[in-house]
Amino acid sequence: MQRSCIKTAGFTLVEMIVSLGVFAVVVTMTVGAVLVLISTNQQLQAEQSVMTNLSFALDTMTREMRTGYNYYCSGRSNYSAGGANNIFKDTNDHEAEVLARTNDCSSGRGSGENLQGVSFYEGGDSLTGASARRILYFYDSTGTTKTIKRRVGNQPAQSIVSSGLNITDANFYVSGTATTSDAVQPTITVYIEAQEVDDPGKTYYLETTVTQRSLDL
């Protein structure tokens, strides 16, 4: 009597276990890579948002400064600090405090000055709606969240940066403001350091220099 033996192809239990293990490792590595890419993309988007906000603020300042004249740089320890020419306090007459006078601050913000900035007459009446109106840009580090503000005439100052940013340091270096024939063109250098309020682990640095467009020689 002849018997036939039929062999059936398939996987053994060990082969199945090894295959599942390899598959699990590959899936884990793939998911990890995807999560890293998502995290990196979110971080880059956050950084791009910060730089866009800072660049917009800096461009706004420098555009108006470049076309302005009669620059007056000043600093104060706080809004209530005494003495003449406190141009930062909302209740003070900003334009009357300065009039057509000028002032340099070539060394930037002094020690103990939590308020520092530069006031100038705008070059035309297209922005504020009135001719010969003074604009003030200044750094305010008196609060918990530090910022840069803009004040037009005697209106209250308004922050020009996002509430999600903390301006950890800023300086306005102003020189050559004298309106007499001193052969020096007025120059302003703005330096900014900033951090995200929710993620203070990284600091962003920006700096630019502008020169008065109209000749002052």
Number of domains: 1
Low-confidence stretches: none
Mean pLDDT reading: 83
- Fraction in helix: 25-40%
What report would you give on this structure?
The chain has helices at residues 13-67, 94-98, and strands at 69-76, 115-121, 134-140, 147-152, 158-159, 165-175, 187-196, 203-211. The model has no long low-confidence stretch (mean pLDDT 83). The chain is α+β, with helices and mostly antiparallel strands. The chain has one domain (41-211). The strands form two sheets. A five-stranded antiparallel β-sheet has the order 1-2-3-4-5. A three-stranded antiparallel β-sheet has the order 6-7-8, covered by helices on one side.
Keywords:
217 residues, 8 strands, elongated, five-stranded antiparallel β-sheet, 2 helices, three-stranded antiparallel β-sheet, alpha+beta
